[in-house]
C-alpha cells in the first residue's frame, strides 16, 4: 500500500491510500514529487550540485616542469554556487563525476602537457598524454569519480608540461580548456 499526501487550499493536508507502491506529494493541481518504492537516497534536483567552466582568457607563462593552477574565467553554469576562483567546493557530500581538459596554444617538437586533478592540494588524477609535433597543439583530458565530504573538500586543475619550451600558453576556448562536474550520488 502507498500514500498520496495532498496540500489543498481548502482542506490543508489530506491523505489517501493507493496501490501504486509509491509515495506521492501533491498540490491541489497535480503531483510535485513521486518517490519510488526503492531503498536508498532520493535525490531532488535542488540538492544536486553541477558546474561547468572554461578558460575564456588565455593563461600564459606556465612554466615547464612546475605544476601550475589553471584559471577558469567563465562559467557555463554553477547550479549551487560551489565553483569560485577556479575551485569546486561542493556543499553536498557524495560522489562526483569530474571532467577536465586543457590544450596548449602551440608547442615545439617533443613538448607535452598533462592536465592534473588535485583534491585538497594533492594530485589524485592525471589526464591523457599528448605530444606536440611541430606546431601541433598538445592536449590532455581526464575524468574521475571523486568522493567529496560536502564541507571542506575542494578540487582544482593544474597543468604540467615539459620539453620544447620553457613556458607555455593555453588555448582560451570552451572546447579547449575546461572543467566540469556533477553529483552522481549523495553519501
Structure description:
- The chain is mainly beta.
- The protein folds into two domains: 2-35, no CATH class; 51-186, Jelly Rolls.
- Helices cover 0% and strands 53% of the residues.
- It contains no helices and 18 strands.
- The strands form five sheets. A five-stranded antiparallel sheet has the order 8-5-18-11-15, with no helix packed on it. Strands 7, 12, 13, 14 and 16 form a five-stranded antiparallel sheet that branches.
- A hairpin with a 2-residue loop joins strand 9 (83-84) and strand 10 (87-88).
- The protein is elongated, with a radius of gyration of 23 Å.
- The protein starts with a strand and ends with a strand.
What is the element layout, followed by pairings?
Elements: E1 2-8, E2 12-18, E3 23-27, E4 30-35, E5 50-54, E6 62-63, E7 68-69, E8 74-78, E9 83-84, E10 87-88, E11 94-103, E12 111-119, E13 122-126, E14 130-132, E15 139-148, E16 155-162, E17 167-168, E18 178-186
Parallel strand pairs: 1-3
Antiparallel strand pairs: 1-2, 3-4, 5-8, 5-18, 6-17, 7-16, 9-10, 11-15, 11-18, 12-13, 12-14, 12-16
Number of helices: 0
- CATH architectural label of the largest domain: Sandwich
For the biggest sheet, the summary is: 5 strands, antiparallel
Order of helices and strands: EEEEEEEEEEEEEEEEEE
